[in-house]
Amino acid sequence: MNESPSPGTPGRDCPLCPRLVAFRVAQRAPQPAWHNAPVPSFGELNARLLIVGLAPGLKGANRTGRPFTGDYAGVLLYGTLTKFGLAHGEYAERADDGLTLVDCRITNAVRCVPPANKPETAEIRSCGQYLAAEIAAMPRLVAILALGQIAHQAVLAARAHKRARYPFVHGVVHELPGGLILADSYHCSRYNTNTRQLTQPMFEAVFIELKHRLALS
Fold first, then answer.
1. Does residue 2 sit within a domain?
2. What is the DSSP letter of 70?
3. Count of domains forming the chain
4. Has residue 34 been placed in a domain?
5. Rounded to the nearest 5 degrees, what angle is found at the Cα of 58, between the Cα atoms of 76 and 157?
């Protein structure tokens, strides 16, 4: 697994969000073999593309310790990354499957699993310091892909940009001050794909545009 730590990565027992701490502790007792801690980013810091999701899934990244690993969202995401040359290997829904990322890195707006997969505003704000530090620590960063509105807003907050200037719209690519671009996609969750809010062609279209932008950089 290719992984580079980023400055300010939360420790295993990060105390910032009491509700998330309590939920994390409650999961450790019945599932001692699970990761059950803030989930670190996946990929190298010198990548040009950063993908930002919402938060670890209870039986996905919270279990495996790698973003988007162990649940349906990872099947679509890693399959798409492999198709577009942004990942090598075979995704096997575990952190030791040997999958590697190519010129991209994956993280979440909130690093700890939230109850019912719904982080609160204060928790998103508290964890924003880690996202801001991560973005700042990526020297070759060209593009950020936000999976969902919360991730989109977290990126804007991390860069101190106003939401009103850059509304979340699936498929839109925003040019941010300083040269970064922010691409939007609906989250690749099972709910969104089952309801057809997000289809595989829609998701792949976002990556076609991102690959074009990266080729121009």
1. no
2. S
3. 1
4. yes
5. 75
Tokens of 126: 């508290």
What is the per-residue burial (b if ≥16 Cβ within 10 Å, else e) of 115-143?
A: eeeebeeebbebbbebbbebbebbeebbb
Is 5 inside a domain boundary? Answer: no
In the sheet that 104-108 helps form, which strands lie side by side, from edge to edge? 42-43, 104-108, 49-53, 143-147, 181-185, 173-175
pTM for the whole thing?
Answer: 0.95
State both tokens at 116.
Answer: 């019912």
Distance CA 145, CA 186 (A): 10
How many angstroms separate the Cα of 11 from the Cα of each of 33, 38, 57, 162?
18, 7, 18, 30
> For position 188, which CATH number holds?
3.40.470.10
Q: Which domain holds residue 174?
A: 18-216
Q: Are 206 and 176 in contact (CB under 8 A)?
A: no
Q: pLDDT (tens digit, 0 to 9) for every residue of the chain, 217 residues total?
A: 566 566 668 999 999 999 999 999 999 999 999 999 999 999 999 999 999 999 999 999 999 999 999 999 999 999 999 999 999 999 999 999 999 999 999 999 999 999 999 999 999 999 999 999 999 999 999 999 999 999 999 999 999 999 999 999 999 999 999 999 999 999 999 999 999 999 999 999 999 999 999 998 7
In a domain, 7, yes or no: no
The torsion defined by the Cα of 25, 60, 196 and 207, in degrees rounded to 10, comes to 120
Residues 6+ apart with CB under 8 A from 197: 186
